[in-house]
Design a protein that fits this description.
Layout lengths: L2 H17 L5 E17 L9 E16 L3 E12 L20 E10 L7 E8 L21 E10 L2 E11 L10 E10 L4 E10 L9 E14 L2 E14 L2 E15 L7 E9 L9 E2 L27 E10 L5 E18 L4 E16 L6 E11 L1 H8 L10 E9 L1
Parallel strand pairs: 12-14
Antiparallel strand pairs: 1-2, 1-19, 2-3, 3-4, 4-5, 5-6, 6-7, 7-8, 8-9, 9-10, 10-11, 11-12, 12-13, 13-15, 15-16, 16-17, 17-18, 18-19
Length: 413
C-alpha cells in the first residue's frame, strides 16, 4: 500500500463520517483503573535486593456512534509507577508538578458499511490482534499496552471475512525517497473452520533507495477447535525474506490440547508446546532465527517474562496447564513450563554443547467476589540450569544456580 492508496482510504472513511455528521449520535463512556504491585527477584546468578514497586494504569474511553454506522473512538490513558519521575525528570507524586503522562492509547474512526454491505474500515491509532495474539497482540498485561497507527479495511460475508491492514512502524519523512518502516498484510478468517490464514510484509527502508535493512514476509495460520470436552489451539508461521543482506528462513509452531471435565468446577487440564527455530550457524548467509514479531509474550512463555525477545538459539517450551473454579467467583490456575533452546549453545564451564534452560512454575488466583473489582494475585518461580545462568551472567565459573521468583497483586475496576 503506497501513500496515495493510504490517503484515498483515509479520505474515504473521513468522507463517510462527514456525510452523517448531522445525523443522530449515540455516546458510550467507559473506563478502567488498574493497580498492581510486584515483588521481583528475577536476577539470575546474583544476590540483589528484592525490588518492590507499584504501577497504575488508567483508561477512559469515549465511543460515539453516528447514524448507527460510523464510529469515533477515543481512549485516553495514563500509565505510571508510584513515585517515579516524568519525562522531564521531575517527581510526579507529592509535588506541585503534573506528570504529563496522559496519552492517546487509541483514537480512530470506523465505518461499518462503506458503499456495500460487509465492507468496512477504520483509520487512526488502534490495538491490533491476530488469532490468540501469538503473532500480533495488544499486550494487555503491560502497563502501557501496544497500539499502532494505520488503516484496516475488511469485507465480511456469511462464513468468512477478508481483512487488509497497513501499519506504520516508523515515519522518517525523508524528502528524497522512501525510508520508512511499514507493515502490510492480509487475513482470511473462515468461520466454519475456526481458521485464520494471514500474511505480513515488513519493509524497513531506513538505508535509502538501493539497500533495505529488512524485507521480511511472515506467512501463517491460527486454528481453534472445540469437540465435546476437548479443545485445540495451534499456530504456525514461516518467515522468509532478507535482513541486512542475509536471507531469512525461520519458523514457529505451537499447539495446545485441553480437556474440560464435566463438573461444577469446570476443571481443565492441558498439554502444549511452543517451538521457535534457532540458527545453528549464525555467521553464515542465512538466518534461521524466528523473530517473535509483535506478540503478547506474557500470555505464552511464562509470567516471569524471561523469554519475550527472539533468541539466536531459538526456544522450545513444553507446558502443562491446570485451571479450576473451586467456588463461585474464584479461579485457580497453574502453569508448568520446561524450557530448552532449539539449537544447542556452548556451556563456557563444561566446554560442551547443551540445550538446558530451566523450569518455570506460575500459580495465580483470580476472584470477582469483591463487588465491582477483579482481584488477582500470583507467584512464579524459575529453576534455572547452571549452563543457562553461566551463559546469561558471563560468569563461566559459576557452579550453582539459585531459584528466582516473582509475586504480584492486582486490582482492576
Amino acid at each position: 500500500m503506497n501513500k496515495y492508496l493510504l490517503s484515498f482510504l483515509t479520505l474515504l472513511i473521513f468522507g463517510s463520517l462527514t456525510a452523517t455528521a448531522y445525523a443522530e449520535t449515540e455516546y458510550e463512556i467507559s473506563g478502567q483503573v488498574r493497580v498492581r504491585n510486584e515483588f521481583d527477584e528475577k536476577f539470575l546468578g546474583r544476590d540483589y535486593y528484592t525490588r518492590s514497586f507499584q504501577i497504575l494504569r488508567t483508561r477512559i474511553t469515549v465511543d460515539a456512534t453516528v447514524d448507527s454506522n460510523a464510529h469515533a473512538f477515543v481512549q485516553f490513558q495514563d500509565s505510571r509507577m508510584f513515585g517515579d519521575r516524568d519525562l522531564y525528570g521531575n517527581l510526579q507524586s507529592g509535588t506541585l508538578n503534573d506528570g504529563r503522562n496522559v496519552d492517546i492509547h487509541q483514537a480512530y474512526i470506523q465505518v461499518d458499511r462503506v458503499a456495500v454491505d460487509g465492507l468496512g474500515g477504520k483509520a487512526g491509532r488502534f490495538e491490533f490482534n491476530l488469532g490468540n495474539q501469538r503473532v500480533f497482540g495488544a499486550v494487555g498485561w503491560h502497563n502501557v499496552g501496544r497500539s499502532w497507527e494505520g488503516v484496516q479495511v475488511w469485507y465480511e460475508r456469511p462464513g468468512y471475512q477478508v481483512t487488509g491492514f497497513y501499519l506504520k512502524a516508523y515515519e522518517r519523512n525523508h524528502t528524497q525517497f522512501h525510508r520508512d518502516y511499514d507493515i502490510y498484510g492480509g487475513v482470511l478468517a473462515i468461520e466454519s473452520l475456526n481458521l485464520e490464514l494471514f500474511g505480513a510484509y515488513e519493509w524497513n527502508a531506513e538505508r535509502g533507495l538501493n539497500s533495505n535493512a529488512l524485507n521480511r514476509i511472515s506467512l501463517g495460520g491460527y486454528l481453534k477447535r472445540q469437540h465435546h470436552q476437548f479443545d485445540l489451539e495451534a499456530n504456525a508461521v514461516y518467515q522468509t525474506g532478507d535482513m541486512d543482506d542475509v536471507d531469512i528462513a525461520a519458523y514457529m509452531v505451537t499447539g495446545e490440547i485441553g480437556y474440560t471435565f464435566q463438573c461444577d468446577r469446570k476443571t481443565r487440564l492441558a498439554l502444549g508446546f511452543d517451538i521457535s527455530s534457532g540458527d545453528d550457524t549464525p555467521n553464515d548467509s542465512e538466518s534461521k532465527t524466528y523473530n517473535n514479531l509483535y506478540y503478547t509474550g506474557h500470555k505464552f512463555r511464562g509470567h516471569m517474562d524471561y523469554f519475550l525477545s527472539s533468541n539466536t538459539a531459538g526456544l522450545m517450551d513444553l507446558m502443562f496447564r491446570a485451571r479450576t473454579n473451586p467456588a463461585k467467583g474464584w479461579v485457580l490456575k497453574t502453569d508448568f513450563h520446561y524450557f530448552m533452546t532449539a539449537q544447542d549453545y556452548l556451556d563456557p564451564y563444561e566446554n560442551a554443547l547443551t540445550s538446558d534452560v530451566g523450569l518455570e512454575i506460575d500459580a495465580s488466583v483470580v476472584t470477582t467476589r469483591i463487588k465491582g473489582i477483579t482481584f488477582a494475585t500470583g507467584i512464579s518461580v524459575f529453576l534455572p540450569q547452571e549452563s543457562f545462568v553461566r551463559l546469561n551472567t558471563g560468569n563461566p565459573l559459576l557452579t550453582e544456580s539459585d531459584p528466582t521468583w516473582w509475586v504480584y497483586n492486582q486490582a482492576t475496576m
